[in-house]
Known about the structure:
The complex is a heterodimer of chains A (343) and B (222).
Chain A: E1 9-20, E2 23-35, E3 40-44, H1 51-58, E4 66-71, E5 74-75, H2 81-88, E6 91-94, H3 106-116, H4 121-134, H5 150-162, E7 168-172, H6 180-197, E8 200-205, H7 208-214, E9 217-222, E10 225-231, H8 232-237, H9 242-249, H10 258-264, E11 269-275, H11 283-291, E12 294-305, E13 308-318, H12 321-332, E14 337-340
Parallel strand pairs in A: 3-8, 3-9, 6-7, 7-8
Antiparallel strand pairs in A: 1-2, 1-4, 4-5, 9-10, 11-13, 11-14, 12-13
Helix pairs in contact in A: 3-4, 3-5, 4-5, 5-6
Chain B: H1 11-46, H2 55-70, H3 73-79, H4 81-88, H5 94-119, H6 122-130, H7 135-166, H8 177-186, H9 191-220
Amino acid sequence: MSADSAGLIEFDDVAKTYPRGAAETVALRGVRLRVEPGRVFGVIGYSGAGKSTLIRMVNGIERPTSGRVLVDGIDIGGLRGRPLRDAQKRTGMIFQQFNLLETVSVRDNVAMPLRLDGVSRAAARARADEVLEFVGLSDKGDRHAAELSGGQKQRVGIARSLARNPRVLLADEATSALDPTTTAQIIELLRSINREYGTTILVVTHEMDVIKDLADEVAVMADGRVVEQGTVLDTFVRPRTAIARDFVTTVVPQGLPDRVLAHVGGEGLWRLLLVDDEVTQPLVSDLITGIGVSVNMLHADMTEIQEHTVGQMIIKVTGEADRVAAARAFLAERVEHLEDVVR
Amino acid sequence: MSEDRWTLLTPDLFFSALGETLQMLGVALVLGSVLGVGIGAVLALTRQGGVLENRAASVLLGGLVNLIRSLPFIILLVAILPFTRLLVGTSIGVWAAIVPLTVMIAAYIGRLVENSLLEVPGGVVEAARSMGASPGQILWRFLLPEARGSLILAVTIAAVGLIDATAMAGTVGAGGIGDLALSYGYQRYDGFAMAATVVTLIVLVQGIQWVGTSAARRFRRR
């Protein structure tokens, strides 16, 4: 395999069922996904959607009941024993609860993967110090995990996962136990790993904020299936499924409070999404002076998604029916997305 | 000391009994710990969901451990006498007692070790597997080190249990402090011998517990 293709993950019709007495629990029902090398790919879903099972198949901790999971063309689920362990060594993983050893120093935690490979203690520790410096913990090598904050523990977990220079990094709810400020720092660290080393990062989370700030692409999972997939920007601007919309709502509010809606609902109540330069247009004054309608601005916000500015407005347009229709046509040409607010 | 001997206990008698107890305790504890850690590791790794899941091994070894643990020590001692004779060539004396003591304590430690290993958070094993650790590496580099505090406590509990069991070793002529208490303190109404043995046993158990607890605290590193 060539260096530039290293880090490709493919899920080919992957299903997983767990026996439970006479019946069985279905965790995954035919998942197809392709994560291109060097991408940051997010999988979002509620608990029980199957995303934890999915990510554990990439390093062979879980095995598909049917279908294949390929990493750089190698069928991970078909491996046993030493070949499986060798494949696992090319993939790093970080966890929600960090899963560090309590009885050895931070440095020895990070050195552990290399010690498993038979690297000498001195060489493994030297490499550990290198990675600890990269994650900003060069002064914490002699400490024990219990002396560190949550964010620092996750940095140690990240350093440990990087010790072998993996092509693929798996992040299982890696920020779910952290506060918002620490989460942002960990996300920035993961982005810099992706930038500097071109590591493919597969993230599973239930937090849409993490997807927004970290991922290039997103797959939305529900009940063992991928129900929606696309770039993060597209998914934020035009979520196609109710569940994707629910997740987007947690970051960008989608509607109005019911009491307000009861007052202003009906014809001419629109939600506009504007991307990048579109946000700088004087749309409201154009509508009033150019089209001749009155405009009631009910909500407006702006957010950064994948280095794009995404603005949102909810407006109530009133006037003659043909003027309102003209206003709609005028806006449709100038904004990314326009929809009626119905809820 | 007066002519009519207010006690039958002599320093010679006392120290040779103490030596016998310490010999039985030391040898059985070392051998039993090695065997027990092995048994506990096999039980923990082969159980359902373990990294070496194996129902046959788990049921067989678990059954054997339960069988040994079902017998009061005095019964085990006499029941396995043929095995003892086979192993050490005699059925009397200190070594004849060490065999059943080791068997009993290995089974006991095995269960305690199994529990200690199962207490290590599942996430640690998951991290080990994600790094491509072999089952042996999972045991040696992850489970045993993470469990070491509770393993030390397990061996401490076992050591105290061994002192209890050595009192019955007199049955096969192994002597020891417990035998002194029974044959002098009880059967010959020697109050001083009884008091001396009781105090010795208390000091011994307190000492073991103190060493074990402080070692566990030191190694636990929290």
